[in-house]
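Can anyone check this?
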Amino acid sequence: MSNLYRYFYLLTAFLAAAACSKISDNIIWQISRGNGEALFASPAGDTALLCGGILSGKPYLVLIDSKHDIISEYSDEKEGKFTSGLVSEHYIIATGESGGKVLVTSVGKDGFPVWDTTLEFGFNVERVSLCRKSDGNFLAIASKSADSLDTETYGIAFISFNGDGEIISFYDTLFYSFYAVSGVTVGSTGNIYLAVTEAAAGGKTKAVVVSYNENFKYLWEKELYNNPEYGASCLAITVDNEENIYTSGYAELPDSKGNIRNAFAASLTWSGTIRWKKYLEYNNISTSLILTHDGRLFVLNNGCLILNTLNTVDGTITGIIRTFAVCDPSFDRAEGKFVTEVFDNVIVIAGTKNGSFYIVAKSPDSLSPV
């Protein structure tokens, strides 16, 4: 009987390993770079990919070619992190924080620095989001991070600058309760849309989309979840060609052990009317989202780097892509911070795995069993 049990155990283990291997084979490629976090990824034309974040406590950038080989790397001498970056024809622009200040850096594609600057405001900066404006210049938004533990003054700074680092315009304001911007996007009208986490009653936070015009004048804001007993947070935002807004984050829900975070995605019109809202992964948070070249909406859930695909019209969940065959968001040390689409119709996720700076590529068509 003991031999039978042993045979059954070995057979079960073999089949589980085979299943795990089969799903894991859907990873196209992956790169790990040491102690740190990959906080963003951005296409560099049709042949390369820029990733950045923090490595060994320093702001870090890596440029990767279409064969997944490293073209160049850059590590700043200052402590801090890069939280956003874009690639132009000749150079890289990256933004982040160092010592509570805004860090803006330009690096050549060969990894050599071109210029950098730090900007100080009346609050400690923890995150800087970056996007390109319709005139070809850049817009950076500086604030706290949505998970900040800092209880000092909060604020937001808008910084418009060109590729040479010259400040074109800026605007900053202070808040005396929690306020954090996790993402920025600019529509075809020039209007600016922010994914915001604001203080709410009872020590909770609320998930809000806020709009400004191109001159940094406040237009409107829309709260997505308004139950005062449960917190919520907006963590990512993008916009389509018709100026429909898409955002994601988390909303708390009741659980037998107390409130638990549940990932969500939502869509609004350019004027702030909610089109739809959908709950996604239970006990998870949605940290990033992207509209692909063929119009599909992919939403990244932080724990275990799980992707949901959604119908952009009504938010219907049309599929799920699990990066790992076996992974529990509650326990496993794998987190997804950012998702983008690159060459050859590939989805790339930036994040961390077992404490390392981690990048992984998946096919957008390799759906997983629910």
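Reply from J.R.: I decoded it. The CA atoms of residues 25 and 325 lie 9 Å apart.
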